[in-house]
Amino acid sequence: MTDQLDVDLALLDTIADRLRRAGALLTATGSPATPDADEATAMVAELLTRVSTNVTNLAGGLRSASGRVAVASHTSEHALPIRQLP
Fold first, then answer.
1. Where in the sequence is the domain holding 49, given as residue range(s)?
2. pTM of this prediction?
3. Which of 19, 53, 60, 72 is the most buried (most CB within 10 A)?
4. What is the arithmetic mean of pLDDT over 36-44?
5. CA distance to 1, 12, 45, 55, per residue, from 68 (Å)
6. What domain count does the chain have?
């Protein structure tokens, strides 16, 4: 166990920003329209709905992780003695 935490706060801020932007990019295009696939249209529509739901959940997770990293980078100095890396 260590009593000091070495942290590059700028790197943590960069990671938080990248996670936030990745989450935003995933949902920026919106849900795709269902193509006409003849008899398979209903199946394709269901598949697209599931993919869209999962992408939305992933984007929310990325934004949540971004917020947690940002909070950690600003509050970690109170948890352990920190030596900022150059």
1. 5-28+41-80
2. 0.75
3. 19
4. 95
5. 23, 10, 34, 20
6. 1
